Amino acid sequence: MNIQTVEQLDDALSLPPDSVVESLTQLDGDILVLGVAGKMGPTLARMAKRASDQAGIARRVIGVARFSNDAERQKLDAWGVETIKADLLDEQAVAALPDAPNIVFMAGMKFGSTGSESLTWAMNAVVPAIVASRYRDSRIAAFSTGNVYGLVPVSSGGSVETDSMNPTGEYAMSCLGRERVFEHFSRTNGTPMSIIRLNYACELRYGVLVDLATRIKNEQPIDLTMGSFNVIWQGDANAHALASLADCDCPPFIVNVTGSETLSVQNMSEKLAERLNRPVEFVGEESPTALLNNASISHERYGPPEFSVKQMLDN
């Protein structure tokens, strides 16, 4: 696949595989995507709409966000995704949202929350309580992160879903808080849920590979301290997350979502430098541990990622 334009990229990221079409045919009713205006939300919502149309299902896909960027809202509207502007920390605003039997929860504070720790906890632990109370009779697929596991030996192949939690830092702890709040409401109200522990989505505008390529292009050294990582094409991450709606359970069905390989920062940097025809400089020494996920369960249930690491590098 040779992607040349933003339009081609968005189309590729939202193309539904058969697994998503099949999963969404098992669901009745509309899909509400909360926090739709993030990096993944627009193409995930569009994929849900395309898969439903492909399956011949008359279904509304509705995206909710604060929409600080009106162009993002207009793009979603053009794709057939209805949009609603709302602050998910406002209980009255959430109460006024339409009923929907299928919820994809994508809201939350991400990396780089230093200096905004209180808002991070509010978004990652309070908003889930508001949403889980409002949509107690729905099924909820909630995004989380593999950071809740903490560091594991690179040789381990990554954390599995049954591993103990060992989050490091307030961001990771608040993400575990989000999971525990959803789990509490699932158990208390009998709400079927899935929790998607993602490590890490990537496309041509953002992600670990883009960060490495940018540093190489700018002739900045690459730090090898965190020397290994996982990555998955955003379109594949969208697909696995949507497919998990059909697996929602009580207590929540937990699933790791990432690529099939443990990648080396040094090796990937050298491959990128070759493609960019630039030199690459390394600093630091590789740690024997890293933040890594084993996504065997998602690959068995939903199929392996369709977009390879080589395709990401080549594009």
Structure at a glance:
This protein has 315 residues and is α/β, with parallel strands linked by helices. The chain has helices at residues 6-13, 18-25, 41-54, 70-78, 91-95, 117-134, 169-189, 208-217, 234-243, 265-276, 296-302, 309-314, and strands at 31-34, 61-65, 82-85, 102-105, 139-145, 152-153, 193-198, 201-202, 222-223, 228-229, 232-233, 253-257, 263-264, 282-283, 289-290.
Q: Strands, helices and their partners?
A:
Elements: H1 6-13, H2 18-25, E1 31-34, H3 41-54, E2 61-65, H4 70-78, E3 82-85, H5 91-95, E4 102-105, H6 117-134, E5 139-145, E6 152-153, H7 169-189, E7 193-198, E8 201-202, H8 208-217, E9 222-223, E10 228-229, E11 232-233, H9 234-243, E12 253-257, E13 263-264, H10 265-276, E14 282-283, E15 289-290, H11 296-302, H12 309-314
Sum up the structure in keywords.
12 helices; alpha/beta; two-stranded antiparallel ribbon; 315 residues; seven-stranded parallel β-sheet
Model description:
By secondary structure, this protein is of the alpha/beta class. Helices cover about 40% and strands about 15% of the residues. The chain is built from twelve helices and 15 strands. The protein has helices at about 5-15, 20-25, 40-55, 70-80, 90-95, 115-135, 170-190, 210-215, 235-245, 265-275, 295-300, 310-315; strands at about 30-35, 60-65, 80-85, 100-105, 140-145, 150-155, 195-200, 200, 220-225, 230, 230-235, 255, 265, 280-285, 290. Strands 3-2-1-4-5-7-12 form a seven-stranded parallel sheet, with helices on both faces. The chain has a two-stranded antiparallel ribbon with strand order 6-15. Strands 8-11 form a two-stranded parallel sheet. Helix 6 (about 115-135) runs parallel beside helix 7. It is globular.
